[in-house]
Amino acid sequence: MFHRGTWKLAASVVTSLLLLSGCGLFGKDEAVKEIDPPQDVSYLKDGQSLQETTGKQGGEKDEKKATETVKRELYLIDKNGFVVPQTVELPKTDAVAKQVLEYLVEDGPVSELLPNGFRAVLPADTRVLGVKLEKDGTIIADFSPEFANYKPEDEKRILQAITWTLTQFDNVKRVKIRINGYDQDVMPVNKTPIQDGVSRADGINIDAKGVADITNTHPVTVYFVAQQGNDTYYVPVTRRVSNKEKDDIVAAVNELIKGPSYGSGLISEFQPDTQLVGKPKYEDGKVTLNFNESIYGSNKKNVISDHVLNSLVLSLTEQKGIESVSIMVNGKANLVREDGKPLSEPVARPEKVNTESF
Questions:
Q1: 16 sits in which H/E element
Q2: Order of strands, sheet of 266-267, starting from the edge strand that comes earlier in the sequence
Q3: Residue 209: per-residue pLDDT
Q4: What CA–CA distance (Å, rounded) separates 252 from 260?
Q5: pLDDT of residue 253
Q6: Where is this region: Disordered (predicted)?
Q7: What is the pairing mode between strands 182-183 and 174-179?
Q8: Which residues contact 37 (CB under 8 A, 6 or more apart)?
């Protein structure tokens, strides 16, 4: 949601919703399903480089390929300390997993792409020695020893950023880490356990405030809004909800209505008296939600806030099997978006989050 470091999200949220109907919030990128194939990993001495591309190279084909770009999600750290997806244009390559990791390194190639208020997550001078994708969807990322040169408070952020950046690709389910060719059972500084690998199920920006007994809870990830100057973007937050709540759709909606934690720097446009009217309906990847009139974000009748709509879609499609969201009020599907267009079709999960073109 930015133009080379300067975003224009507040305006684009409104205009971009013209493209929402059934095809996603932020646009599509068919290349995301590609990932580095299983391969042997080379461990290098200082000064050497690793070439992981596949296929032939040379001539005009290479020159043309070098100029082509593709949208990728990089998970970076914002001014509030949250790990946040930002979509950037990267040079097209066959070694996509290795590339996105290299763009997480401080003072690396991401430096010219960083939005205002954001920083890279991996310590400066960290080298990606190799990646290996196993048949079960586990990807092994091997880093140089400089990987361990981070502050203790950044350890979980680094782990989450690596995991969520790599699992944007459909065939990557879990991430394991090596340092200089050696498997790691724990992270090197604060010793966070990672022996069995890490997945999105482990959460991101975990908020367990007010949870007395975490053993009787399970995670649900929802998206709140953050603001940087005049620009806005969406932040995933994993909340712990009681195991007594069997319906994760209801749990996610209730957490959105509850809103972000006080002092977090996040915001919400949900009215506190918003409620679901009846149980959500799920069929063929589509969830239908029926709200009371408090879902409206203003005094204008039937108008739903863009941020409310986007937060619902991002949060619910984070759950397995949910591809789109349809919204009703008191049993009627007569909502209108902020741009005046009727919300007549289900809204699909975007391929990319926080990109300039919805």
A1: helix 9-16
A2: 231-242, 217-228, 266-267
A3: 81
A4: 12
A5: 97
A6: 43-65
A7: antiparallel
A8: 54, 133
